[in-house]
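Q: Please design a sequence for this.
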């Protein structure tokens, strides 16, 4: 009887022991505050995206008056796109700091930077007042926005995934994408309302500044919530268990190639479909199919409003039936329905246009509700923030921001209005292969490198029973440690210059000459 009780109290895991005390009991009220705090930051990022996209023509006239028509719009969007170039740099910088100093501190810093950069755009005088300095200052503000954004979303995903109980992680992290939709809806809706009230002339004179000023109170509200957050349980346990040795960028790239590549491809299909379906769609309706710009923008806004509750539903279903199943269902749906949806979009009837876009948007919610919990699960705790920041931001910069440009260029080259559908199908096919072959189902399980997290103490006995043979990631961690140790031994014992590399304290490298006695 005593042996059975001991078995329930602790489970042997490759030299480590899992005790009841190791299992994190998550305070649901704290998690709810975390969802709000991280969601506000994500909403502000997409609030900026929405207002800039809807004000592109006005910003072009204010800051690039020497150009006109399409050329002016190109310069306006080029200033917007430059933020994507520095996102990977911001992701690397803040990701490394987040794994060293903690998630909470970095999320506060990125939010402040985003709010100040967005607010500053509203104060920049136009080209008519200060000449060439006006677009230069706009460019600097956009660079700061892009740099801070590089650490924002990946940090928010990491924070929320590590703060959530294992069996509710998809549902709770789906709140990030609700923040995305709310931010874009609020931003674009604000511009639309102001334009209706003030008129185009007043918007051009000074009204365009108002949406950027709104960033200040949003940032203050978000900062208030983030200062009330606690550091994630997974990061605190990691800091308690390990020394202060910091993992370098080289270590992450060399030793964590597999999760980096998986994440890169997952973010590829996610962003290609997102930017093609929701971001590029108004331009496609206007430029390719000849509908009014207002029609396209209003349809997208209505579609996004309908998506809000469905994203949460997909997160709930991901916890119940498995994230991978939900994602694969969405990918297969895209493969089968992309062309029929674009046939409806090109029908010329508003109802069928809306139906076609809605089909694609509903399929896309399968990714929005599940990927914020899937992506953090690819990495072990000690490299989660930095690894996710690297893979997410590089993929966004390469494939997300370029999707509208590539699609529009292919349409002009081929003359086919189904190019967006073909690109969506290609991205979905890649996604099906990766999700089926290379991504392990982790729904309801602890994050890699972390002990279990539960919402109530009554779940602890069941968790201990489930982990009778060891945590699911333990064998993977053991193999990883052996591979790293083997690489280190080969590196330490070989030297091209005839030097013997001895093992110093803590694995540090010390060089001694291997000279024979005379």
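A: Design:
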């Amino acid at each position: 009887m005593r042996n059975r009780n001991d078995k329930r109290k602790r489970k042997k895991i490759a030299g480590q022991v899992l005790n009841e005390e190791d299992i994190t009991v998550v305070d649901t009220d704290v998690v709810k505050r975390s969802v709000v705090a991280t969601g506000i930051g994500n909403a502000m990022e997409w609030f900026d995206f929405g207002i800039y996209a809807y004000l592109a023509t006005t910003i072009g006239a204010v800051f690039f008056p020497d150009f006109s028509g399409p050329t002016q719009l190109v310069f306006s969007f080029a200033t917007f796109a430059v933020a994507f170039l520095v996102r990977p740099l911001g992701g690397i910088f803040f990701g490394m700091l987040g794994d060293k100093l903690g998630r909470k501190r970095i999320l506060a810093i990125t939010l402040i930077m985003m709010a100040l950069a967005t607010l500053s755009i509203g104060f920049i005088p136009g080209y008519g007042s200060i000449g060439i300095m006006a677009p230069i200052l706009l460019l600097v503000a956009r660079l700061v926005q892009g740099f801070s954004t590089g650490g924002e979303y990946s940090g928010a995903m990491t924070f929320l995934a590590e703060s959530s109980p294992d069996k509710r992680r998809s549902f709770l992290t789906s709140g990030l994408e609700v923040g995305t939709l709310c931010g874009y809806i609020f931003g674009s809706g604000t511009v639309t309302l102001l334009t209706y009230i003030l008129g185009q002339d007043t918007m051009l004179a000074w009204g365009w500044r108002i949406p950027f000023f709104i960033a200040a109170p949003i940032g203050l509200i978000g900062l208030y919530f983030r200062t009330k957050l606690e550091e994630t349980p997974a990061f605190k346990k990691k800091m308690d268990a390990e020394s202060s040795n910091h993992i370098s960028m080289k270590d992450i790239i060399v030793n964590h190639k597999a999760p980096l590549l998986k994440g890169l491809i997952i973010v590829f299909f996610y962003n290609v479909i997102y930017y093609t379906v929701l971001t590029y769609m108004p331009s496609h309706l206007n430029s390719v199919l000849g509908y009014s710009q207002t029609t396209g923008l209003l349809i997208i806004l209505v579609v996004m409003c309908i998506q809000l509750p469905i994203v949460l539903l997909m997160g709930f279903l991901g916890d119940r039936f498995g994230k991978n199943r939900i994602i694969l269902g969405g990918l297969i749906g895209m493969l089968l329905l992309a062309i029929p949806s674009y046939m409806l979009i090109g029908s010329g009837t508003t109802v069928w246009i809306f139906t076609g876009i809605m089909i694609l948007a509903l399929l896309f919610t399968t990714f929005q509700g599940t990927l914020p919990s899937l992506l953090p699960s690819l990495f072990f705790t000690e490299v989660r923030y930095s690894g996710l920041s690297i893979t997410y931001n590089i993929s966004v910069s390469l494939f997300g921001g370029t999707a509208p440009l590539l699609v529009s260029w292919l349409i002009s080259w081929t003359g086919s209005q189904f190019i967006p559908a073909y690109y969506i199908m290609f991205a979905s096919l890649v996604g099906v292969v990766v999700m089926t072959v290379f991504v392990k189902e982790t729904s309801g399980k602890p994050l890699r490198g972390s002990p279990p997290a539960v919402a109530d103490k009554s779940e602890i006995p069941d968790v201990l029973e489930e982990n009778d043979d060891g945590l699911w990631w333990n064998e993977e961690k053991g193999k990883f440690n052996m591979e790293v140790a083997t690489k280190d031994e080969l590196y330490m014992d070989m030297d091209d210059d005839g030097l013997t590399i001895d093992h110093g304290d803590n694995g540090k490298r010390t060089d001694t000459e291997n000279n024979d006695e005379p």
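Q: Thanks. Anything notable?
A: Residues 4 and 10 are 10 Å apart (CA to CA). Residues 1-15, 498-518 have pLDDT under 50 and may be disordered.
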